[in-house]
């Protein structure tokens, strides 16, 4: 269960939260003991990581695009009828607050390919994209506009700049997770295979100090904190938020375990309690989330 101890002159990453839109959830589709079907406004958070040694800039998720009407028609229909969004600020607005442009981003890691996470990729013309290997399974039915019913657009991921994390990347066990990828090769950032929510779903384990602080960015492993704490159970059937429920439950249990370790902060992409406590504060770029 232990996480890797720091090396001498251990590199790490600063982590900044980015407010990148809001989505409205009916909690009766997320947890089994929700008391109301009223839609609740929930943040869709992204994160900027900056490596302390090589100065690389790494984005985890892109949130919701402000011009969401330009998503594939199937997505637009779903937003209007089911999801509903508000995007007073998108990824580009959030980065601009710290003087960062899309051209400054070295790597974009998408936790998975749902619209409230993949945002608008086209302006990032110099970035490498990182996605879970099983993301390829989502493309098998064809992409929009060739397939007018598709939820993913053909230009979502640039073919020449996208890395699919398959069996060849050198997975290793870390803490409670059987598969993690040491992205920079120096113990500062691990991409974690986090199956269940959607094909290719991945998380990040980020070292946030040279002496043992960590943050775990859990993406959509859970949409509500009660699932991680165990106060609620998942909703099953056609309303379930996860594609592979048994795998999702296993991943939730692993996140619950890593949260027990000292100096590990856990955040989910739709972390309403954390957002309500920290919005507008120094945890958001150009500030940083304090290391534990």
Structure commentary:
InterPro entries: MBL_superfamily_lactonases, Metallo-B-lactamas, RibonucZ/Hydroxyglut_hydro. With 292 residues, this protein is α/β, with parallel strands linked by helices. It contains six helices and 13 strands. The protein has a single domain (13-276), classed as Metallo-beta-lactamase, Chain A (4-Layer Sandwich). The chain is 16% helix and 25% strand. The chain is globular, with a radius of gyration of 18 Å. The protein starts with 12 loop residues before the first strand and ends in a 14-residue tail after the last helix.
Measured by DSSP, the beta-strand proportion falls in 25-35%
Contiguous runs where pLDDT drops below 50 for at least 5 residues: none
Structural class: alpha/beta
**What does the main sheet amount to?**
7 strands, mixed
Task: Considering the chains and any ligands shown, give keywords for the structure.
single chain, 292 residues, alpha/beta, Metallo-beta-lactamase, Chain A, 7-stranded mixed β-sheet, 6 helices, 13 strands, globular
């Amino acid at each position: 269960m232990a996480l890797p101890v720091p090396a001498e002159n251990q590199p790490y990453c600063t982590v900044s939260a980015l407010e990148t839109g809001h989505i409205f959830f009916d909690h009766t589709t997320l947890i089994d003991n929700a008391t109301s079907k009223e839609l609740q406004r929930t943040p869709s958070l992204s994160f900027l990581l900056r490596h302390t040694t090589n100065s690389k800039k790494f984005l985890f998720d892109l949130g919701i695009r402000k011009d969401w009407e330009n998503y594939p028609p199937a997505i637009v229909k779903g937003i209007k009828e089911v999801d509903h969004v508000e995007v007073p600020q998108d990824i580009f607005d959030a980065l601009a607050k710290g003087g960062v442009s899309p051209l400054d981003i070295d790597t974009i890691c998408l936790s998975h390919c749902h619209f409230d996470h993949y945002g608008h990729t086209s302006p990032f013309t110099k970035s490498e994209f990182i996605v879970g290997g099983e993301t390829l399974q989502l493309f098998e039915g064809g992409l929009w506009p060739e397939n007018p019913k598709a939820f993913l657009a053909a230009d979502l991921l640039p073919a020449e700049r996208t890395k699919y994390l398959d069996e060849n990347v050198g997975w290793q066990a870390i803490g409670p997770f059987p598969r993690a990828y040491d992205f920079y090769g120096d113990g500062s950032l691990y991409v974690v295979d986090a199956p269940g929510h959607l094909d290719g779903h991945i998380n990040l384990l980020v070292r946030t100090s040279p002496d043992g602080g960590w943050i775990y960015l859990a993406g959509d492993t859970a949409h509500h904190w009660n699932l991680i704490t165990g106060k609620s159970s998942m909703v099953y059937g056609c309303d379930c938020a996860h594609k592979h429920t048994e795998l999702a439950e296993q991943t939730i249990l692993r996140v619950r375990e890593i949260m027990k370790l000292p100096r590990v902060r856990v955040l989910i992409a739709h972390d309403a309690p954390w957002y309500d406590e920290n919005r507008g504060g120094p945890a958001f770029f150009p500030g940083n989330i304090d290391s534990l």
